[in-house]
Amino acid sequence: MKAKIGNPNEPWCPVCEDHTDYHLKEIRPGKTRAMYTCNKCGSNTWNPTNPFLFGVVVIVLILGLNFLMFAADKNNTAQLQPGEILLGKIAALGMSIFMLAVVWGNSKHWRKFQKWRKKLYQEKIDAVLEQK
Ligand SMILES: [Zn+2]
Predict the structure, then answer these.
(1) 100 C-alpha to center of ligand 1: Å?
(2) Which of 32, 47, 62 is the last residue of a domain?
(3) Most CB atoms closer than 10 Å: which of 25, 29, 38, 107?
(4) What's the structural domain count of the chain?
C-alpha cells in the first residue's frame, strides 16, 4: 500500500480518487502525453498537470497553427490548391478542438485532484488535532 499523499508528479486515478498502482498504456504514434492505465479500475490515469501552464502552451500552439493556415491562404507561397487550403483549415480547426478538449479534460482532472488532496490534508490535520 502506497503512502496516501497528494503528489501531482504521480499519476492519479480520477475514478478511484487515489494514487493507485498503474501500468503504462500502449503508446500510439503521435501521442506525446504519458497516459497510464489504473490497475484497479482500468481507466485512464495521468499526472495532474497545472491547467494554467498547459492551457497557455496549447493556446499558443492553436494560434500558431491557425495563423500559419491563414497566412498560407493569403500569400499562397506554397502554391496550394483552394481545396488543400480548405483541408488545412479544417485540420487546423480539428486540431484546435482536440487540444482544447485535452485541456478541458486535464483541467477537470486537476480540479478533482486538488479537491481530493485538500480533503486528504484536512483529514490528516483533523486526526492530529483529535490526538491532542
Ligand atoms: Zn482507478
Answers:
(1) 24
(2) 47
(3) 38
(4) 2
